[in-house]
Amino acid sequence: MNEQELLARGGLAATDKRVLVLRALAEAHGPATPQELHDALGARLNRVTLYRILDLLVEHKLAARHNAGERAFRYCLLDGAAGHAHFTCSRCGHTECLGSSGFGLMLGELVRRLPMRVDSMDISFGGVCQGCLAG
Ligand SMILES: [Zn+2]
Ligand SMILES: [Zn+2]
Questions:
Q1: CA 13 to ligand 1 center in whole angstroms
Q2: 76, 80, 91, 119: which sits with the fewest CB atoms below 10 Å from its CB?
Q3: What total number of domains does the chain contain?
């Protein structure tokens, strides 16, 4: 699904700037801070507009906002689910989405079986990543 189709699914018009932000999220390696996204986008988008679009994407469930215990939130693409879990390494700070991992899929299945409607989900795991364990 391309950026235009994603925006349409979220009920948003596909403006050039929204497409840029979605693409930057898709190209980021794991959940990105607004600063990292801003660096990737360069002069094409000012910071205020970037924040506004990120808020809008979260509101329309196209992006997830993740608090990794840092000063800034991190943002990642959301594939139509209410949310997904994240893992943050306490040694190197590496953060990753567990959305499409086996665990992420199990979590999605569990949520679908709940009798209530789940609109948001923010599950965080902390520990030591594979890279740090190996090193
Ligand atoms: Zn690590
Ligand atoms: Zn994520």
A1: 39
A2: 119
A3: 1
